TrEMBL record:
GO molecular function annotations of the record: beta-glucosidase activity
Superkingdom assignment: Bacteria
Residues covered by region (Disordered): 316-336
Protein name in the entry: Beta-glucosidase
The reaction(s) this protein catalyses: Hydrolysis of terminal, non-reducing beta-D-glucosyl residues with release of beta-D-glucose
Extent of Basic and acidic residues compositional bias: 323-333
SUPFAM superfamilies with a match to the protein in the record: (Trans)glycosidases
Xref: Gene3D superfamilies: Glycosidases (3.20.20.80)
Classification via PROSITE patterns: GLYCOSYL_HYDROL_F1_2
């Protein structure tokens, strides 16, 4: 199987081209695209429960049908092949495979992922499997969820099941996608499933997600061949103080602690930062939470770190007319997701916004990647999500023209190219997303896909950006400015 590992050193890129073997892909998540919510033994996840709870998701939308990828995966893989994708990053629905989160697997659930990976391999596309993209089996949440330590053992057992089922087909494994969202949006602000607003539970969940990652890496390594790669994907916040004032620098430090270093500290350095512990000591007893052996488990070596980036995070101390503590780009809530960070004001980096009201700033991605390369030399990186939502529509001619998305992708791919030239070992890029899909609490109101989905008919229409991206893949290079696919 072709591993996601291009040639090194990273500096092989020329003025416009990317390194030989650079991996070009697209990504999706199970609950956002699969549908078939109650088919073949699948039981509710926390997102099924959350989306069916009135008032939690815009327009009462759910992922019951989503993009119907469960039934249309062959057509979707054919689309991927037409676009020239080299890899497809998908997630596994835990409750489709293991309905109660414990015990034996449901073979009908595993069979879907076997069929999907076989289809990908036949099309020459490398499957990249993510074990967890936010859809905890509801029965495990009922038993305590991520704040409960037992969930880490359940996740390790699930990882073992998946490795034994797909280890002969999948050579690239990601344990968790964006554990910050799972912990801080799920248990802090409550804007994501399971919708809890408990600061102490948020921090316990963060530690147990870290621990679950480590245990899963151990379970995967015990089963997979030595050539297989393991990873985790983090939505690292590119945090900037609004001004040079010391109080704004202090706000940035606190956000960096609970937004980034609560994960990178134990994962990459083997310890939780002292300032994070001090900031949050009034909420949780870290000496009791972190047991002997936890940090060694969490810091098991990984082969690549996945990095998701959309927009920078600009912060300051609150002051009259200087932002609000809730305007942080993560949805409206009376409860801050920034557990332990105190009062912090959030600001837009500029006025060039996507449909999510996120500022477009490609330099933030360059800074993030080169910063990781500097702080952790030799760390292999993969941009596992990057993209933008815009108000796409089908023209009378049946086309979807999205020049804003093309401009967004061009600027961010240029940022990746510059990061590689500056020494960052970036080995690939996954566009978010392959398809328009269920955008969590925003329902179907936001379109991130390179492929337009008409939800009433499930018709797929590749957007202009999809054809542009296909041209980039074909040439392994950005087209000259003004040049179109």
């Amino acid at each position: 199987m072709t591993a996601v590992r291009p040639e090194t050193p990273a500096q092989q890129a020329t003025a416009t081209s990317f390194p030989t073997g650079f991996v070009w892909g697209a990504a999706t998540a199970a609950y956002q695209v699969e549908g078939a919510a109650a088919e073949d033994g699948r039981t509710p996840s926390i997102w099924d429960t959350f989306s069916h709870t009135p008032g939690k998701v815009l327009n009462g939308d759910t992922g019951d049908i989503a993009a119907d990828h469960y039934h249309r995966y062959r057509d979707d893989v054919a689309l991927m092949k037409d676009l020239g994708l080299k890899a497809y990053r998908f997630s596994v629905s835990w409750s489709r495979v293991q309905p109660t989160g414990r015990g034996p697997a449901v073979e009908r659930g595993l069979d879907f992922y076997r069929r999907l990976t076989d289809e990908l391999l036949e099309a020459g596309i490398t499957p990249v499997a993510t074990l967890y993209h936010w859809d905890l089996p509801q029965e495990l949440e009922d038993a305590g969820g991520w704040p409960h330590r037992d969930t880490t053992d359940r996740f390790a057992e699930y990882a073992d099941i998946m490795a034994r089922a797909l280890g002969d087909r999948v050579g690239v494994w990601t344990t968790l996608n964006e554990p910050w969202c799972s912990a801080f949006l799920g248990y802090g602000s409550g804007v994501h499933a399971p919708g809890r607003t408990d600061p102490a539970a948020t921090l316990r969940a963060a530690h147990h997600l870290n621990l679950a990652h480590g245990k899963a890496v151990g379970a995967l390594r015990a089963v997979l061949p030595s050539t297989a790669q393991t990873s985790i994907t983090l939505n690292l916040h590119q945090v900037r103080p609004l001004t040079d004032a010391p109080e704004d620098a202090e706000a940035a430090r606190r956000i960096d602690a609970v937004g980034n270093r609560i994960f990178t500290g134990p994962l990459l350095d083997g310890s939780y930062p002292a300032d994070l512990i001090a900031d949050t000591a009034h909420l949780v007893d870290w000496n009791d939470l972190v047991k002997d052996g936890d940090l060694a488990e969490i810091s098991r070596p990984i082969d690549v770190l996945g990095v998701n980036y959309y927009s920078p995070t600009v912060v300051s101390q609150p002051a009259e007319g200087r932002g609000t503590t809730r305007n942080d780009g993560h949805g409206a809530s009376d409860h801050s997701p920034w557990t332990g960070a105190g009062d912090v004001a959030f600001h837009l980096a500029n006025d060039d916004l996507t449909a999510m009201n996120w500022a477009i700033d490609a330099d933030g991605l360059h800074t993030l990647l080169t910063g990781l390369a500097k702080s952790h030399p030799g760390l292999a990186l993969m941009v596992t999500e990057n993209g933008a939502a815009f108000d796409d529509y089908v023209s009378p001619e049946g086309r979807v023209n999205d020049p804003q998305r093309i401009a967004y992708l061009r600027s961010h791919l240029d940022a990746v190219h510059r990061a590689v030239a500056d020494g960052a070992d970036v080995r690939g890029y996954f566009l978010w997303s392959l398809l328009d899909n269920f955008e969590w609490s925003y329902g179907y109101s936001k379109r991130f896909g390179a492929v337009y989905v008409d939800y009433s008919t499930q018709r797929r229409i590749p957007k202009a950006s999809a054809h542009w991206y296909a041209d980039v893949i074909r040439h392994n290079a950005l087209p000259a400015t003004g040049e179109h696919a």
